[in-house]
Specification:
The structure holds three protein chains of three kinds.
Chain A (H helix, E strand, L loop, with lengths): L5 H4 L4 H11 L1 H17 L3 H20 L2 H5 L8 H18 L3 H29 L4 H23 L22 E3 L13 E3 H26 L8 H20 L10 E3 H18 L2 H11 L1 H6 L4 H27 L1 E3 L7 H11 L9 H26 L2 H32 L1
Antiparallel strand pairs in A: 1-4, 2-3
Helix pairs in contact in A: 3-16, 4-11, 4-14, 4-15, 4-16, 6-7, 6-8, 6-14, 7-8, 7-14, 9-10, 12-14, 15-16, 15-17, 16-17
Chain B lengths: L6 E10 L2 E11 L4 E5 L6 H8 L3 H5 L4 E6 L2 E2 L5 H7 L1 E4 L11 H5 L6 E2 L2 H6 L5 E2 L1 H15 L14 H14 L5 E5 L7 H16 L3 E5 L3 H7 L2 E6 L2 E7 L5 H9 L19 E10 L6 E9 L3 E5 L6 H8 L5 E7 L2 E2 L5 H6 L2 E4 L3 H5 L6 H13 L3 E4 L2 E4 L1 H14 L16 H14 L4 E5 L7 H18 L2 E5 L3 H7 L2 E6 L2 E6 L5 H8 L3 H9 L1
Parallel strand pairs in B: 3-10, 3-11, 6-9, 9-10, 15-22, 15-23, 18-21, 21-22
Antiparallel strand pairs in B: 1-2, 1-4, 4-5, 7-8, 11-12, 13-14, 13-16, 16-17, 19-20, 23-24
Helix pairs in contact in B: 6-7, 7-8, 10-19, 14-15, 14-16, 16-17
Chain C lengths: L1 H11 L1 H19 L4 H20 L1 H6 L8 H17 L4 H29 L4 H22 L19 E3 L7 H4 L3 E3 L2 E3 L1 H19 L1 H11 L1 H6 L4 H27 L1 E3 L8 H10 L9 H25 L5 H20 L5
Antiparallel strand pairs in C: 1-4, 2-3
Helix pairs in contact in C: 2-14, 3-9, 3-12, 3-13, 3-14, 5-6, 5-7, 5-12, 6-12, 9-10, 10-12, 13-14, 13-15, 14-15
Classes of the chains: A mainly alpha, B alpha/beta, C mainly alpha.
């Protein structure tokens, strides 16, 4: 019925605390080990891997973050974020067609994506409200189904029902959008290149700024709102950590180091941070409390006067819109739109990422999303090389990482179902 | 205004599809009093409460007749929400608490105190932040009113069951305008000391001017806290008494009343304990909501024994436990042979059969034919109705059809043929199919639970007659569990009353109402204890 | 008239009514574009025999209460392994296909048993878990195919000398062996007698099984678990039996499929194998709780006809792109979604 919060129950001494912390985070720990081994055997230079990871974190984490709210609202992993990605891609095609480039193009795409994603999300939510208890398999199948409609739109309706005279985008026969669309002249790096610093500069300024915010926040809470101190130790500690990061950044700035090649798309990260703050904020509002209530027990929520279906609908709409924006970030970084493929794996990869980060079907946080994205993509970067070095076959790594994605989802869903069953039997 | 009444329900009548469940009931509650509402299951208490709360079930079945006056003005409540808004609160029997939330969050569930922030000014109220500090203060105040020392920031998940009840109550009294609070059997899940604390808390609440409507069957609790008592029976108002004017025995008698229609003429031959067919010793069954906590009972060969008692007291659990459907411990001996517990197969193959109280949930394969329903258990457990064909044991269609037709004729099952799906049958005929399946096992002892639940009156008599016929003509021992005391008294030889998971006592059908009432309320031993010894 | 139409639609269900009207439209289109109806019919019959057994595999899993068997790739992999071993043994003709099936059965039984144990641990979420179990096992097998110790040059990559090929040709082994067995022509339509007979045989055996003591027990478990317990039946056992039978049929089904198709497809191919089978039985009128053999036959026939006829008609209409593939995707997942909304749990 309802997920208990295991962490808060343990009042045992420190040894027990460490044990339960290990146990609760077994999945990320396991993947840290796998990733380190993979990194070792891949023989790749650390700076290269870090640079890749920074780029991939910027590219992918937004979509992963889009999964959090439906989990809080008790709807499990929203595989239907694929629909959000489609909304984004439809907007990309449209704006590319109109020939609006650069930051204005990017903004227009986002503006255009939003109503589309809201409509898609609304329909997804309606459907999921009809299949309570089977949300995940439904959202998965919905992803496949929507893909069919998407193909119908781009392969057959363009050029027949929807007139589009654009030899760059449309296939030579005049019907259907081309397989790949080059975004190089349009929105490629539109967000990434707004501000781009190297790693040390980012550490120095970013760290300092974050620390400043943390202290300001603490000050505000203590002085203006007169909160108890026990609530405020966390931001202070975080602030101190970020000061250290900042200092490290300043000290390394002039020095020679292989890590200088690591470029950080600061603008994108600011955008991602804004989403993190938004997610944190929304959980603490009235709406967030309603998400949590519905997520814990639909029945009790209904009895206490919450419109359960509406709340679930809102959760899915938010998730779909965020996924749409996330896909745009993804595409502007990648620079090419694979019309019929870019969105397909979005749901699966995002879900696998957040699960690897330690989330479960009933519990997900920002940290799960960020850490999971890092680990999953480390695996992406290193596994083909590791596979080649270890077994003489690059395909092994390729297959291994697909297996990991499916496997981690399967195990996580299975464990969740099993826990529910045990609880029901009690 | 306040010296008058807070709630007045006058001449309340309600019928469900022509079946009158409330026949002109009056109920008057004054501010600050504790008013007990007594009655057996099916007396009409819950219907009356559903009307008070404006539950949808009332409106979808044609509304009700009568007047409800709350706080001096007539009201017509359309939904529980409206009831809440005018100040009627309910402490549910099942907890409406979210384990993962803190006590405060539960108390303030969907009534959170919020404050504006930059975003909410633009996007509307649902973006307001929660004012946790203020919420915790309010929760603390409500808990203090009850005199309970729970931490308001603790998670509900870790609390003992007894405390959860208090969180529920705290939520109700935290509502600013609360004027009437309904407690629906609040002490059912509590230990004795917790129940005492609860009764103290109820008095405190009442002293603060909130009226309490107390639904219970524990007569001693009524006597200790109630100011006034209203008793319902069969949808009628039997009595409205002041506590000072009455005593436990009188309440028990009023609650049960005499309502026997002799359904089947039979002489009650009580026999003696010389011929025991089923011996039950120290049986405990973990059936949620119907827990059995140690029962000793001897069933005599060829008798119909009734198991009676109020809902939730454990009578239902006995048959379910012996048949292996819920975890059970203890000893059950059939004609001298030990029956393995927790193994339905062992019970079925050893000559026990069971007609479940949950006809549609447990008793039938609703989307299968009548004939399959009749033979399936015998086929699976006793390998009847089979023929060998190649490497499969094939169902013997001809044999099955013959048997089904015979059963349909013998038990007079009204249907369009043995292949009709049981879903399409009426309740009474479905029940007969269940009995037919049990009979196909040719059992020594037949358990029948709530055989007439959800069946119309004409069919009720047919089912009961059938049981008597089986008993008389085939000499079958029948253990019948029923919530309807009248029904038990009309066909049983002996009636065991089950209270709090134990046998309170065994009565003859002709015993007095007061004795039945006292036993069902668990007061029999207290009142008669001295004489009995 | 309108009343009658409503009644008919109610009886066959709106989604099926849509499919039927769509089919009629397609046939009209086929006439219009002057396509060879005989060819289309022949193809449809071949496809019926080709896919029927895989679709039949859904019946035991639905009836035993584990729902649509999205874990079908497990059985498919067992079947493929059986087929590969028979080629490795250098067998040909009926011996080859029989040995392939015989080897696949014990593999499927073992796999199905453990898979059933797993499904019993996740009651209520079988379909979600099964989908991902199917996916993960299929993707794990991708690594497996690279390293399994097969030697036959027909199976192994020629250049690397190890690792199985993406597609394995069956010509000279058991390509079309059932399709062509006793095949004859009626008015220009070729009847693939062997395949249809084999499908009929499978249906007959499953029919017998469902009327046997074991099968009745399994159905009782699937229809009402609490009833089954009260009748002394083991719920877990019934569900495992259903899963095992379904997996075995999956294994045999892929071999029949392969003989007709002419190839075994390895690596990612088994991944999505369950969905067309699921869609077919749903189109035939089954739900997540109830399925009959008639649903299998009707569903496969309708679904495959749709695909067969849609392809040339669509190609005539829109010469570029693969419209019929898009139609397949929309129809199959549309039906799966519809079945999920009917399964209840909602309002």
């Amino acid at each position: 019925m309802v997920e208990l919060n295991v962490k808060d129950k343990s009042k045992n001494p420190i040894g027990g605390k460490i044990k339960s912390a290990l146990f609760n985070n077994i999945v990320p720990i396991l993947f840290i080990i796998i990733c380190s081994l993979g990194f070792k055997f891949s023989g790749l230079p650390a700076a290269y891997v870090v640079n890749e990871l920074v780029a991939r974190l910027a590219r992918n984490s937004f979509v992963v973050l889009a999964l959090i709210i439906p989990v809080i609202a008790g709807m499990g992993m929203n595989f239907a974020i694929v629909l959000g990605a489609m909304a984004g891609q439809i907007a990309v095609v449209a704006v590319t067609h109109w020939g609006i480039v650069g930051v204005p193009g990017l903004l227009l795409i986002m503006v255009l994506t939003t109503p589309l994603a809201i409509i898609f999300g609304y329909m997804t939510g309606k459907l999921l409200n009809k299949t309570k208890g089977q949300e995940m398999v439904t959202s998965l199948m919905l992803g496949f189904f929507a893909n069919g409609l998407y193909q119908l739109l781009f392969l057959f309706l363009i050029g027949t029902i929807i007139p589009m005279n654009n030899p760059v985008l449309v296939l030579s026969g005049g019907i259907g959008i081309k397989n790949t669309i080059d975004l190089a002249g349009t929105i490629k790096y539109a967000m990434d290149n707004m501000i781009k610093w190297n790693m040390f500069k980012t550490m120095a300024y970013g760290g300092a700024f974050t620390a400043l915010c943390m202290f300001a926040y603490t000050g505000y809470k203590t002085v203006i709102e007169k909160n108890k101190i026990r609530l405020n130790s966390k931001p202070v500690i975080t602030g101190i950590i970020f000061i250290l990061i900042s200092v490290m950044g300043f000290m390394s700035m002039g020095k020679k180091s292989p890590f200088v090649i690591v470029q950080v798309p600061v603008g994108t990260f600011v955008f991602i941070t804004a989403l993190c703050l938004f997610t944190t904020f929304i959980v603490k509002t009235k709406l967030g409390q309603q998400f949590r209530t519905v997520g814990q027990s639909m029945h009790i929520a209904e009895v206490s006067g919450i419109n359960v279906n509406k709340i679930r609908l809102i959760a899915i709409v938010i998730s779909t819109v965020l996924a749409g924006w996330g896909q745009i970030i993804f595409l502007q970084n990648l620079g090419t739109l694979n019309t019929y493929g870019s969105h397909e794996q979005v749901g699966m990869f995002a879900v696998a990422s957040i699960l690897i980060g330690g989330a479960s079907v009933t519990k997900a946080s920002i940290w799960h999303a960020i850490i999971g994205t890092l680990l999953f993509h480390t695996l992406f970067v290193v596994s083909p090389y590791a596979g080649k070095n270890l077994l003489g076959n690059a395909m092994v790594g390729e297959y291994f990482r697909v297996f990991v994605a499916y496997g981690v989802i399967g195990v996580s869903l299975g464990l969740h179902a099993w826990k529910n069953l045990v609880k029901k039997k009690k | 205004m306040n010296h008058g009444t807070i709630l007045e329900m006058r001449n309340i009548e309600k019928d469900y599809f022509g079946n009158k469940v409330l026949k002109g009931v009056n109920l008057t509650v004054k501010p600050g009093e504790i008013h007990a509402l007594l009655g057996e299951n099916g007396a009409g208490k819950s219907t009356l409460m559903n009307i008070l709360f404006g539950m949808p079930v009332i409106h979808t079945t044609g509304g009700f007749n009568g007047e409800v006056t709350f706080n001096g003005s007539p009201v017509a409540l359309k939904s529980p929400r409206e009831a809440m808004d005018i100040g009627i609160g309910m402490v549910h029997q099942e907890f409406m608490l979210i384990p993962g939330f803190t006590v405060t969050e539960n108390i303030k569930l969907n009534r959170e105190i919020t404050k504006h922030n930059a975003v909410s000014r633009v996007l509307g109220d649902s973006m307001k932040s929660l004012n946790m500090t203020q919420m915790e203060k309010d929760a603390r105040k409500a808990l203090d009113t009850l005199g309970i020392g729970i931490d308001e920031w603790a998670k509900v998940a870790g609390l003992p069951v007894g405390y959860m009840q208090f969180v529920e109550i705290a939520r109700e009294i935290d509502k600013q305008n609360i004027k009437l609070l309904v407690f629906d059997e609040p002490t059912a899940v509590l230990t004795e000391s917790e129940a005492d604390t609860l009764l103290q808390a109820m008095k405190k609440i009442a002293d603060s001017g909130i009226a309490i409507l107390f639904i219970t069957h524990r007569l001693d609790e009524v006597m200790s806290v109630a100011d006034n008592i209203t008793i319902l029976r069969d949808g009628e108002l039997v009595a409205a008494l002041k506590k000072e004017e009455t005593n436990v025995t009188q309440l028990a008698e009023l609650m049960v009343g005499r309502k026997i229609e002799k359904m089947a003429q039979r002489d009650h031959d009580l026999g003696d304990d010389s011929n025991i067919v089923l011996k039950i010793r120290n049986l405990e069954v973990e059936m949620p909501g119907e827990e059995v906590k140690g029962i000793d009972l001897d069933i005599r060969k060829g008798e119909i024994i009734g198991l009676g008692g109020l809902a939730g007291q454990g009578k239902i659990g006995i048959a379910n436990g012996i048949m292996g459907l819920y975890p059970a411990t203890g000893e059950v001996e059939l004609s001298g042979r030990q029956i393995e517990l927790n193994n339905p197969k062992a019970s079925l193959t050893n000559g026990l059969a069971f007609v479940s109280e949950d006809r549609r949930g447990v008793g039938l394969l609703l989307d299968s034919s009548i004939e399959l329903n009749i033979v399936i258990t015998a086929m699976q457990m006793k390998e009847m109705f089979l023929k060998k064909l190649a490497f499969f044991e094939q169902a013997d269609a001809k044999h099955i059809r013959e048997h089904a037709l015979k059963m349909i004729e013998d038990l007079d099952i009204r249907c369009r043929g043995p292949q009709q799906l049981t879903r399409r049958l009426s309740g009474g005929n479905q029940q007969k199919v269940c009995i037919a399946r049990a009979l196909t096992l040719s059992p020594n002892v037949l358990f029948v639970s709530e055989p007439t639940r959800g069946i119309d009156i004409g069919a009720k008599k047919l089912v009961l007659d059938l049981l008597v016929k089986l008993n008389k003509e085939m000499g079958m021992t029948i253990i019948m569990t029923s919530s309807e005391l009248g029904e038990l008294r009309s066909i049983c030889d002996r009636i065991a009353i089950i209270t709090e998971g134990k046998v309170e006592g065994i009565l003859s059908p002709d015993d007095s109402d007061a004795n039945f009432g006292l036993m069902m309320a668990g007061e029999y031993k207290k009142v008669h204890g001295k004489e009995a010894v | 008239m309108q009343e009658k139409l409503k009644l008919v639609i109610n009886k066959i269900g709106i989604p099926r009514a849509i499919i039927i009207s769509f089919l009629i439209l397609l046939f009209v289109g086929a006439f219009y574009y002057d396509l060879s109806i005989q060819m289309l019919l022949s193809d449809t019959l071949v496809r019926l025999g080709m896919n029927g057994v895989l679709v039949l595999a859904m019946v035991p899993s639905i009836l035993s209460g584990t729902g649509l068997n999205f874990g079908l790739p497990l059985g498919v992999i067992c079947g493929i392994i059986g087929g590969l071993i028979s080629i490795e043994m250098d067998l040909e003709g009926f011996t080859a296909i029989s040995v392939a099936m015989l080897i696949s059965v014990p593999l499927s039984v073992i796999t199905g048993y453990f898979y059933g144990l797993l499904l019993n641990k996740v009651k209520g979420s079988e379909m979600t878990v099964a989908t991902y179990v199917g996916f993960s096992v299929a993707s794990l097998m991708c690594i497996g195919w690279l390293f399994l110790p097969f030697r036959s040059p027909e199976l192994v990559f020629a250049i690397a000398g190890s690792g199985l090929r993406q597609t394995i040709t069956l010509s000279g082994r058991f390509d079309k062996i059932l399709d062509q067995f006793l095949a004859f022509d009626v008015a220009g339509v070729t009847i693939p007698t062997g395949s249809l007979l084999f499908l009929g045989l499978c249906c007959f055996i499953i029919g017998l099984f469902l009327k046997s003591r074991l099968g009745i027990a399994m159905k009782a478990v699937g229809e009402n678990e609490r009833f089954a317990v009260a009748s002394g039946l083991s719920v877990d056992r019934g569900r495992i039996i259903g899963t095992v039978v379904s997996t075995v049929l999956g294994g045999i089904g892929i071999i029949v499929y392969a003989q007709s198709y002419g190839f075994f497809q390895l690596y990612q191919a088994p991944l999505m194998m369950a969905f067309p089978a699921v869609a077919a039985i749903l189109i035939g009128g089954a739900s997540t709780k109830n399925a009959k053999i008639s649903h299998v036959l009707l569903g496969t026939l309708m679904f495959q006809t749709l695909l067969i006829v849609a392809l040339p008609v669509a190609n005539k209409m829109v010469p570029e792109g693969n419209l019929s593939e898009v139609a397949r995707v929309i129809v199959s997942y549309g039906f799966i979604l519809y079945a999920l909304t009917q399964a209840g749990g909602g309002e």
